[in-house]
Design brief:
The structure is a single chain. By secondary structure, the protein is an alpha+beta fold. The chain is built from 8 helices and 10 strands. The longest helix has 13 residues. It starts with a helix and ends in a 6-residue tail after the last strand.
Length: about 230
């Protein structure tokens, strides 16, 4: 029974019925609403607290946590691929698409000559209608121009690359560092300037060919990577 109640409450959290930082009904109110015991309600709430969907304040009750994006370091996934199965709403606002000459960093990552033409796509990613990251992606010119005509608002680029453009993605090289938000990133992400960000540099390959180099700027208060480490 507690699993059924947990799923009902989770759905209310994810669809916005319970807004972030709002106080949830008391245990007594939930007992009356679901006609179950206090232990059943506490089991359901305990599960949701472990998932990070709610948090408890001593003496005050349970509150809805702000949505936090997560991705696994053990799988190569796009943002929507990772968050969709968990029930989160994701979409993107395309900020710009343009052709430009590759600087030394982009050219080296994509195995091109400096100054070679590449295609840049900038997107603002949303999680449950809250801005979560700014993604700046670079592609070989022909591939990027094709991507620019696809539905980048609701579909992951990884999915488009594989299903529509015939690219078999194999692996990615990832680097992560902490930075402070400049004025532009702070405005787009609706945070204070100098707030902490995670800057993720990711180079994705199809076979051995690098085809997608990107900088992902995630809000430090709203994103986490997850990793399982086995002891052998």
């Amino acid at each position: 029974m507690h699993s059924q109640i947990r799923e009902i409450i989770r759905r209310h959290v994810l669809d916005g019925t319970y807004a972030p930082h709002s106080q949830m009904p008391s245990e007594a109110q939930m007992m009356d609403a679901f006609q179950v015991s206090r232990i059943t309600i506490r089991q359901a709430l305990g599960d949701l607290q472990k998932e990070g969907l709610i948090f408890k304040v001593a003496g005050k009750g349970s509150f809805v946590a702000k949505p936090k994006a997560f991705q696994s370091l053990s799988r190569l996934q796009g943002f929507g691929e990772a968050m969709g199965p968990a029930g989160y709403e994701t979409f993107s606002q395309v900020l710009s698409t343009r052709r430009l000459a590759a600087n030394e960093v982009v050219a080296r990552r994509l195995a091109l000559e400096p100054g070679a033409p590449v295609f840049e796509i900038q997107r603002l990613r949303y999680l449950n209608r809250e801005p979560i990251s700014v993604d700046v992606s670079y592609f070989p010119l022909a591939l990027g121009e094709r991507l620019a005509h696809e539905d980048l608002a609701t579909r992951d680029i990884f999915v488009i690359l594989e299903n529509d453009l015939g690219q078999q993605l194999t692996h990615a090289d990832v680097q992560i560092e902490a930075i402070s938000a400049d004025e532009s990133l702070a405005r787009q992400l609706r945070i204070a300037e100098a707030s902490p960000l995670l800057r993720i540099e990711r180079l994705t390959h199809a076979g051995e060919q690098p085809i997608d180099f990107e900088f992902l700027y995630y809000r430090g208060d709203a994103f986490q990577y997850r990793l399982r480490i086995d002891r052998t």
